[in-house]
Design goal:
The protein is an alpha/beta fold. The protein folds into 2 domains: 270 residues, Acetylglutamate kinase-like (Carbamate kinase), CATH 3.40.1160.10; 93 residues, Roll (Archaeosine Trna-guanine Transglycosylase, Chain: A, domain 4), CATH 2.30.130.10. The protein has 15 helices and 15 strands. It is globular and about 70 Å long.
Amino acid sequence: MKNRQQLGASKRWVIKVGSALVTANGRGLDREAFGAWVRQIAALRAAGKEVVLVSSGAVAEGMSRLGWTRRPHAVNELQAAAAVGQMGLIQAYESRFQEHGLHTAQILLTHEDLADRERYLNARSTLRSLLALGVIPVVNENDTVATDEIRFGDNDTLAALVANLVEADLLVILTDQEGMYEEDPRANPEATFISEAQAGDPRLLGMASGTGGALGRGGMATKVQAAARAARSGTATLIAHGRGEDVLNAIAAGGELGTLFHPPTSPMAARKRWLAGHLQARGRLVLDAGAVRVLRESGRSLLPVGVARVEGTFQRGELVICQADDGTEVARGLVNYSAEEARRIIGKPSDQIEALLGYVDEPELIHRDNLVLS
């Protein structure tokens, strides 16, 4: 576990800035705030740090340019606002970074880009190449083409997955709150502030508010979940107020500000991180008690004999969730057989697969290399 001074001195950061900050609560892009963040990021670069910037604000900027006062619900209107707003967002960043002699690169991602293994590896290579060149990648969700089925859901999630992608040392989530409290401080001004916590602690979600602002999709709950996702690659997460004076420089100096989420001591292997980053599962396998115990305690492959029920429709190679009979998620992984085939072989020993299907591909329903515990 690293302390704040060690994290401040770490090399690779992912910085996420929310909609309410970049758009001054809906009144167009806050160019003065942009200048302050860019100046601080330039100082981080001068100190030898590599920085990826994940920025919300395209939809909100598009709304401002189009004269809309309320965030639309229709997907086509959201996509139109994103297309308009993305122009202004990137222009604002590019012009500010140019003042400091820094190049930027626009990276637009959807969940499909990270769910497909080849595209995932391509995105990772591109981001790492840009960092090696001293370029500041500016990442956003590709709202123009994303639908509910391929959406990350919020840029907190996107930032965490980018942190996994580049194996960042620190994820900084800048928001309009000082950090996390045991209760929503807007509802209870006496709420206790949380200075440090363990990423993935199940008690944290119960404390977090799931309500986002008028412009954004996320709330404190999504930030807590993002910290847990980022921790898979050994990344620490710090939630801090984005309008604090020289907030990024203060973090780099090891300042005691915001809420720091510590990752577990052993980061997840790269392929396991990719599997865990899948947000949409195609089906579910309900396991018997013996299979649940084997997966949790031994980390072995999932055999057909341990599956009691198959839910959903999926093809070979697609992601499925493995759950206990009470609905608790145990693991997720890439299945070796389709849903139709799986229904025919579940509950049976692996040496009967060929007789039941007419062929045998793999003796496991999910091989342990393609399985990650939840």
